[in-house]
Structure formats: structure tokens, C-alpha cells
Amino acid sequence: MKTIFVVEDEHDIASVLVDYLRAAGFEPRHFADGEAALQAALTAPPALLLLDLMLPGRSGLEVLREIRQRSGVPVVMLTARVDEVDRLLGLELGADDYICKPFSPREVVARVKAVLRRMGDEGAAPPSRLQVEEASRSALLDGHRLHLTPKEFALLATMSARPGRIYSRAQLLELVYPDALEANERTLDSHIKNLRRKLATAVPGHDWIRSVYGVGFSFEPH
Ligand code: CA
């Protein structure tokens, strides 16, 4: 059974999450403060941490930062603040996913499963349908060559390197326009739109790029 740490000082929220996780076949373990969770996670790493941002004592951010320095355990952040999401997912902190409060426990369980799926069973994962070759800047989807502009290629190569991971608009803008001042989110959205269209033309019937409202995008291979 996979152990999931639920690090949340609000007992009502924590106990609902614990119940749902247990019903889904996980072994949840509740911590009301960050320090205890951190020590436990470093001693005997769980399969995943659900980590609330606002905690007494050491904040969720501090715990996340320390875990990232010392362990590769997947972390899903719980936050009431959408404005924090960019930093949480950014390279400095590197949370694997986030969930905004208020949330439904069902959604939390689904996200936990999704993160575990893309982290864990890499050996068992089906062969990738997308082949990206950096050197020649070529991309094949199910054997169909994609005719991409350099910026579309950069976006696809980055997002597909970590399928399912959410990239914020700011991260992607930084990638395609590292030093341009005039680049804006609308420009990025139009590159994404074109990329989407090309992917859908090559292999229809699947939404390859997921939009995450107010945050950014992820590449979804399945
Ligand atoms: Ca809290």
C-alpha cells in the first residue's frame, strides 16, 4: 500500500482527505505541522506528500524547499492563493502539482493518482507516442512529422519532457522569449494554439495540450 502524507493543520480538511485516500486504497498519514512531516519524510519517504502552504511553525514553502534539496519524493501543494502557484511550480521550488482551495476530495485523489502514475511506473509506461529530437529539431507524433516553428518546437520539447506537469505561462514565456520585453501572454497563447492545431491535425481525437485555467499548460500524452 502506498503511504501518502497529509500535511494540513486544519483538522476538518485533513480528516476528509484521510478518509478519501484510505477509501481509494492508500495509506494516509496525517501531520498537523511541517517539521514533524519533514522529519518523517526524510526518514521514511512516503509515495507522495500533500502539503498545505499555510502551516504553523515551518510553512509549507519551507518544507517544500527542504524536501526538494534532499529528496525526490513527489509533492502536491494545497493552497488558497492562486498567486503563489507560479512560484510553487517554478524551478526554484518545483512542486509536482498543486490544488487550489476550496477543492473536492475526489479531485485531490484523482490528482494524487495522476502524479503517482507519471512519477512512478516509468518502466511500465507505454512507449511515447511523441518523438522529439533536439539536435535536428524534429518531432514525430505517432510517426507523423510535425512541421513546427522553432518556438513551437521549444514549447513542445519542454512540456513533453515531463508529461502531465503544469508549466505556467511565465515559465513558458521565459523559455521562448528569454530576453524579449515585448513578449506577452497573448503571443504565447497563439503559439500554443498553433501547436495544438498541428498536433490535432497529425493525430486527431485527443487533446494533447491541457489548459489549466489562470495558470498555464501541460502536455498530456494519454
Ligand atoms: Ca493550513
Question: What characteristics describe this protein?
Answer:
222 residues, alpha/beta, Rossmann fold, Arc Repressor Mutant, subunit A, 2 domains, 5-stranded parallel sheet, 3-stranded antiparallel sheet, 8 helices, 11 strands, 20% strand, binds calcium ion
Description:
By secondary structure, the chain is of the alpha/beta class. The protein folds into two domains: 3-119, 3-Layer(aba) Sandwich (Rossmann fold), CATH 3.40.50.2300; 130-219, Arc Repressor Mutant, subunit A. It is 41% helix and 20% strand. The protein has eight helices and eleven strands. It has helices at 11-23, 34-43, 60-70, 85-89, 105-119, 150-161, 169-176, 185-202; strands at residues 3-7, 27-31, 48-52, 75-79, 97-100, 130-133, 138-141, 144-146, 167-168, 209-212, 216-219. The strands form three sheets. A five-stranded parallel β-sheet has the order 2-1-3-4-5, sandwiched between helices. A hairpin with a 3-residue loop joins strand 10 and strand 11 (216-219). Helix 6 packs across helix 8. The longest helix has 18 residues, at 185-202. 29% of the residues are buried. The mean pLDDT is 87. It binds calcium ion. The site of calcium ion has 6 residues, from loops.
Write a short abstract of this structure.
With about 220 residues, this protein is α/β, with parallel strands linked by helices. Helix content is about 40%, strand content about 20%. The chain has 2 domains: about 5-120, Rossmann fold (3-Layer(aba) Sandwich); about 130-220, Orthogonal Bundle (Arc Repressor Mutant, subunit A).
